[in-house]
Write the structure tokens for this entry.
Amino acid sequence: MTTTTPPDTGPSPLSQEATIRLLLQRSKRPNRTVPIRRQFLQQGSSGAPAPGPLRSLVRRSQPRALDLYLLVSAVTSNGDFSVTEWATTWARSIGNHDEKSGTIAVSRAWKALRDLKLIDRKRGEAGKSVITKLREDGSGTPYTPPGASGDPYFQLPFEFWDHGLHESLSLPGKTMLLITLSLRKGRFSLPQDRMPTWYGISADTAGRGLRELQNKGVLAHVDDQWFETLSTRTGWASRPIYQLLDPFTPRGLGTSTSDSPGVDTAVLPL
């Protein structure tokens, strides 16, 4: 009786963690942060607010599209702000190792982002796709670094991926992480009833996201802010004061904000 040894099929496809690590290494960002214009979250003025493209991703429940957008934003750090890769590479980055379903999921995510004019997508060599990052405001104009143009922006630390928050946070959690980072304040209040006007997301979504960030040790409820109102019998009501915790403390504010003077209420960017 003879037996046949199965051929060596090689190692299994790269893990999600390793795939993301290699993609982030490609960016060569020395400060390991991703600059993102606040217009991705919120546009307009204090008198005429207009939610940014993030609202559409939240309302249409597109968590993987947001995951891919943030990763593309990290990788495309210079040149023409494009990246050329196989769909299977992107599929692994969102945790899908099945070639067929992963490719379909990635294609749908690219379409959602392209419809919002956040990226451009073209065919590349060897079956790859060329993904080019466009301006974060959804205008469809070519991308330029926000620092060079003087546009308000915030920074998403690579610890978002290092700590596995890209997998452990839900879409509301990721949304509120971006919003809290965009405030760039040591301490701040964030009235949930203003979320629909300011960012186009429901108060319930904001509340769930804030609670999730607290449970994950990203955000802390450090105090309460009292204010006058006619909506209560006493004429007083309170709202929570939050603080982002290391390593998500906004860059430039230092490692500790526990002694920051005063409290800032979230406002529309001017």
Notes: DSSP finds eleven helices and eleven strands in the chain.
